[in-house]
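Work Package 3 (structural annotation) set out to generate three-dimensional models for the target panel prioritized at the project kickoff. During this period the team completed the workflow that converts sequence records into discrete structure tokens, so that structures can be stored uniformly alongside our sequence database. As a representative example, we reproduce one entry of 137 residues exactly as it appears in the project archive.
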Amino acid sequence: MDISIHSTFLPHTDPDASLAFYRDALGFDVRNDVGYEGLRWITVGPAGQPAVSIVLEPVAPPGSGRTDDECRTIEAMMAKGTYAGINLSTPDLDALFNRLRANDAEIVEEPAEQPYGVRDGAVRDPAGNLIRIQEQR
């Protein structure tokens, strides 16, 4: 069976800040930016990988069935970095972290050798989503 990851979803609380982070700090391509009922969905992805995307979505998109209490809980978890996250990789972790620092990204953990055999670090996007970035070896 041939199966691929096409897209994943991460919630945002500020579409403009999220767009700037993923486009400018991470260098992702913007693939789509659409609005509906006053909300925005922004699709981004790594350059050179057009088949892989991250859809940055509102916390409470129409039809989600999420209650106001659920949305408040999600937003509180996002602010702590405990709701959603993604793992990325790069051949030059130090250069990427320098770029993230230059774009005022919130560095959660500086790049370091981990006891489980990888070198990685972590940042948060403007919504609080945790992004771990591994160095490719």
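The beta strands are 7-12, 29-36, 39-45, 53-58, 85-90, 106-113, 119-124, 130-135.
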